Amino acid sequence: MSWSAFAALMFMNLLGALAPGPDIVLVTRYATRSRKHAIAAATGIQLGVLFWYTITVFGAAAVLTAFPGILRAIQGIGGAFLIFMGVRSIKGGLELLHNPPADIEEAALRLGSLGQVFRTGLATNLSNPKIVLYLAAMIAPLLPPHPPLWLAVALILGLSLSAYLTFVLLSTVISTSAIRRRMLAAGPWIDIASGAFFIIAGCVLISASVGIAPQLHA
Fold first, then answer.
1. pLDDT, greater one: 75 or 198
2. What span, in angstroms and rounded, lies between the C-alpha atoms of 54 and 156?
3. Whole-number Å distance between alpha carbons of 195 and 65
4. 2 phi/psi in degrees, rounded to 5
5. Mind listing the pLDDT tens digit for each residue in 131-181?
6. What residues form the membrane-spanning segments (predicted)?
7. How far is CA 62 from CA 6, 24, 135, 188, in A?
8. Handedness of CA 7, 13, 116, 106 (dihedral sign)
9. What is the pLDDT of residue 2?
10. Burial group, residue 154, by CB count within 10 angstroms (0-12, 13-18, 19+)
């Protein structure tokens, strides 16, 4: 693999990381109230991404294509989880409307522990296995048929680290004190909008889990 191909993969990876989706919505929601929580969520998300990168580079996309039932099952479970998250986020937003936090410090405390947020980020990312098919489409044309181990490891680490740093930068920018103070009053509506997004994303995943087989064989 040439350096230009490697750089092209990094660039496409960053575009994919910043594309609207559950990961971005989750990190943004936390960042409007707490930098630490946003970075904890981003860390959990990137652990999931590291898992997807690893199995993609080592050929998991071919397995999922050959056995679409596995993909359907994971998507169904992931969709149900996103819907659960969406309902919980909407309930939290409605509670905030009736009992708003006094300041940004209290708003951050209501997000729960960093460990809980980390696990939420990880579960959110793992809920969408179709990232493997996207990554395979991005990586396969530029990767040798049988890449040496050092190249596979370098590619996995490079993709993961670049995406993680992008999420950390996003978390840092959004979570500045000035932005958090301005967004404090909008917190309940951010939760409600995020919840609606998660519910829609979950329904899309569940729908895909029912109809994915013909698409994979098309």
1. 198
2. 6
3. 31
4. -80, 165
5. 776 777 766 666 666 667 887 788 888 888 888 999 999 999 999 988 888
6. 6-27, 39-64, 149-171, 192-213
7. 22, 27, 12, 43
8. positive
9. 63
10. middle
Q: Mean pLDDT over residues 36-63, rounded?
A: 85
CA end-to-end span of the chain: 30
Separation of alpha carbons 188 and 169, rounded Å: 24
Question: Which residue reads 């999931």 in tokens?
Answer: 48
Amino acid at 109: L
| Buried/exposed code over 70-97 (b: 16+ C-beta within 10 A; e: otherwise) | ebbebbbbbbebbbebbeebbebbeebe
Cβ atoms within 10 Å, residue 112: 13
183 contacts 41 by C-beta, under 8 angstroms? no
Q: What Cα–Cα distance (Å) separates residue 184 from each residue in 100, 163, 187, 188?
A: 9, 28, 5, 9
